[in-house]
Amino acid sequence: MASTAARSVVPQKDLESFQAHLNSSTRILALLGAGLSASSGLPTFRGAGGLWRTHDAVELATPEAFGRDPGLVWQFYSYRRHMALQAKPNPAHYALAELARKKEGFMTLSQNVDGLSPRANHPPEKLKLLHGSLFDVKCSEFFCKHTESNNYTDPIVPALAIPTDESDPTTISALQARELDISDENVALPELAIRDLPRCPKCKRGLLRPGVVWFGEMLPTQVLDDIDKWMADSKKIDLIMVIGTSAKVYPAAGYVDSARAKGAKVAVVNMDRADMPASGLYKGDWFFEGDAAQIVPEILKSVVGEIKEQPDLAVEA
Ligand SMILES: [Zn+2]
Q1: Is 131 a catalytic residue?
Q2: Quick one: CA torsion of 102, 103, 109, 114, rounded to 10 degrees?
Q3: CB within 8 A of 18, min separation 6: which ones?
Q4: Which of 21, 133, 166, 229 has a Cα at 20 to 30 A from 7?
Q5: Euclidean distance between CA atoms 26 and 214, whole angstroms
Q6: Distance, CA 84 to ligand 1 centroid (Å)?
Q7: What is the pLDDT of residues 156-192, one digit of tens each?
Q8: Which amino acids are annotated as binding site for Zn(2+), given as ranges?
Q9: Between these two residues, 311 and 162, which has the higher pLDDT value?
């Protein structure tokens, strides 16, 4: 893991004022988005140049699509699981996990489904996944509550293996080179039999499905309740860090406003100055422009120390 100690990417004055505030903060929130995972080399779901074109991804990420063609939807998610497992947690994921161990009153809300924060050993009770995870699977039967967390098996069933033959046009490298996706009509996909898809081990009837929030679905109630409780328990919130997300959409935007209403200063870490929370920045807030993987460990260093090589829990598993 590269050290960021050699050169500072953050203006010294901003670094000093931020760290002075961080050191004395007791109630801290972090809001994480796709920009954090982009630092790990993972294409964003909607981002320009992303491997999956928006309309394809949106069409596949619905309960209706799963009902109509579970084989195709599972191939899409098997591919996304595979890509996420190719990426590694970056120093920002490890620094945030360490901050969670050092600061009792630190809570992280993530919009990412890529499993990188769990793999960086972020304490699970301090990590709320607003959109679920690619590595959670659950039964698709309405009355069966079976769920599995941190299932890193790739492929999840043999039929969902991604071809590795270089001459095959559906291999990862071939797809990346052509910026195609597996739902492209020019890429032949194997027809999958329902019996070859992952099946619920509990009810033995339902298909397992990815534990992500699909378009048209509610955000996980337990997660929202936990966050509401944390907010309600906070008389004052000292700081909210907005990392790799514009926090313009619900519920993320609301959390920035709620934290601010309880006195929080806002620190934004983003590649693009245009990606700003809807309420903008106030005097005394911070904007750290650049790569989260470099900036986050640097600004948190006064509490977490130097971030060293760490185990990746998906590899350990
Ligand atoms: Zn079941």
Answers
A1: yes
A2: 0
A3: 267, 286, 299
A4: 21
A5: 34
A6: 26
A7: 998 888 755 545 555 555 454 444 444 444 455 566 7
A8: 139, 144, 200, 203
A9: 311
251: CA distance to ligand 1 center in Å? 30
Contact (Cβ atoms closer than 8 angstroms) between residue 230 and residue 262 = no
**Sheet strands (E) in 153-270:** 208-212, 239-243, 265-270
Residues, beta carbon < 5 Å, ion ligand 1: 139, 141, 144, 146, 200, 202-203, 206
CA of 203 to the centre of ligand 1 (A): 4
Per-residue pLDDT tens digits for 263-283: 999 999 998 888 788 788 999
Q: How far apart are the first and last CA of the chain?
A: 21
The answer on pLDDT for 3 being more than 80 is no
- With a CB cutoff of 8 Å and minimum separation 6, the contacts of 178 are none
- Rounded CA-CA distance 245/42 in Å is 15
Q: What are the E-state strand segments in 69-155?
A: 106-110, 127-129, 132-139, 147-148
Distance 7 CA to ligand 1 centre (A): 52
Are the beta carbons of 31 and 276 closer than 8 angstroms? no
Which domains can be identified in the chain, with CATH numbers? 1-42+89-131+218-317 (3.40.50.1220), 44-86+134-212 (3.30.1600.10)
* Structure tokens, 271: 């590649």
